Amino acid sequence: xSGKIIGIVILVSALVAGAALYYLQVYGYxxxxxxxxxxxxxxxxxxxxxxxxxxxxxxxxxxxxxxxxACFTTPxxxxxxxxxxxxxxxxTPRNAPGWFSCFDAEAIGTALDAGGALAFMGQKNVAYGVDxxxxxxxxxxxxxxxxxNDCGEKAYDGTVVGEECPPRPETAAD
Length: 174
Hints:
alpha+beta, 2 domains, 4 helices, transmembrane, kinase activity, membrane, Histidine kinase
């Protein structure tokens, strides 16, 4: 009889732990954030410049610098954007939680591959080793996510970073 009780306790504990893990990954760490503007890196100045954007909806999590996602609309044409702002080749959007319905990574990726959307650099090193990528479709819908840059990939996989990367900022744990 005690074996059945132990088995039930283990099973219930596993179910509770699994449900908690699922909740924390999908809902727990994300918060809606106020994003006032959208910026792209100018070809002329190399600096981020604000572009017209409406209906900005964004989520972020403190647990990782690459969990940021946002959606917006802009009246600017892709022709104007390509002449004015730095493009990002081979950008691949990261998945967003299913409840953040405006951001469909698969549809955005398909549009990027088909040429119906283009990806631009929004901001370099928004956090150490992380760039902000902005994709805009032909009809003016825009999507933002964060992506590791070369320095970030090296820093997080343990490879020697090298002189081409800026020094890593000191943290409280250091």
